[in-house]
Amino acid sequence: TQEPEEKKIALELLETEQAYVSRLHLLDQVFYTELMKEAKTRKTVPEEVVKMIFSNISSIYQFHAKFFLPELQERMEDWSCNPRIGDVIQKLAPFLKMYGEYVKNFDKALELLTAWSERSPPFQELISDIQKREVCANLTLQHHMLEPVQRIPRYELLLQEYVRKLPPTSPDREGAEKALEMIFMVAKHSNAAIAEMERLQNLWVVYERLGLEDDIVDPSNELIKEGPVQKISTRNSSTSEKYLFLFNNMLLYCVPKVIQVGAEFQVHLRIDVDGMKVRVLKDSQLPHTFLVSGKQRTLELQAR
């Protein structure tokens, strides 16, 4: 007899999970374990670097190998009596939040891997040796490291397909829909973690350009816009090059440094956004001019 469509998808979930667990085994028990041993005994790479490259892969591997895969296998063996997977996935979903850390760290991990492969030939040699093994299927470590990043979207697609194929009267309808909603929230959580990491990275770069002034460095700030302007001197109508950084709470009025050692700009003035007013000036001699007035001071500026 023809297998029901939803069972085929549930079996596909099980098969891809088995393959995924063997990839996680390769990452954690082979690459990570052997590179860590190399770091401890021969000191060809700092232990800290190896830990940062593999992030929390050990927790991810243990969770899938010891919990999720066995539960899924047991359920599929028992399918004729209990044709559902929604409840198993609902148990899995909260734990998938641990992927946030791995995904957030992924770009940094690849950078470290590239940098240390160039810096330490023995480190690169060991990676190449492992990559030549049959278990690696002619794929690089970077390729295998990408698998956890792609796993949650894969669950989402399979589960969407599963829900679509379920008959309206299926005992798993409610459970599977709830599971899909939970997986969707986890995917969102993972994407939010990446966006937050990028925001903080970009913010840190801006702080470095400003010379890391203590009262400015605040992780909750949001950079909205930055760019060059001309400052108009009311005394003699001359202009001088300045630079603005607009945050959600303050406008920084800066001067580009002539000798760019360390910081790129010097902060001359801070105007609080609270109570700040901006007025466009109609001046035919000086187009694109505007007035910024705040509690601290008023500036007459010209944009490009």
UniProtKB/TrEMBL annotation:
Gene symbol of the encoding locus: Fgd2_0
Q: InterPro entries attached here?
A: DBL_dom_sf (IPR035899), DH_dom (IPR000219), FYVE_RhoGEF_PH (IPR051092), PH-like_dom_sf (IPR011993), PH_domain (IPR001849), SOS1_NGEF_PH (IPR055251)
As one GO molecular function, the record gives: zinc ion binding
Q: Which GO terms describe its biological process?
A: cytoskeleton organization; filopodium assembly
The protein's matches in Gene3D superfamilies, at most eight in alphabetical order, are given as: Dbl homology (DH) domain, Pleckstrin-homology domain (PH domain)/Phosphotyrosine-binding domain (PTB)
Provide the alphabetized UniProt keywords: Cytoplasm, Cytoskeleton, Metal-binding, Phosphoprotein, Repeat, Zinc, Zinc-finger
Q: What is a single cellular component term in the Gene Ontology annotation?
A: cytoskeleton
Q: What's the protein here called?
A: FGD2 protein
Localization terms from the record: Cytoplasm, Cytoskeleton
Stretches assigned to the PH domain:
222-304
CDD domains, alphabetized: RhoGEF
Q: Where is the DH domain?
A: 5-193
Q: Any stretches that span the bilayer, and where are they?
A: none
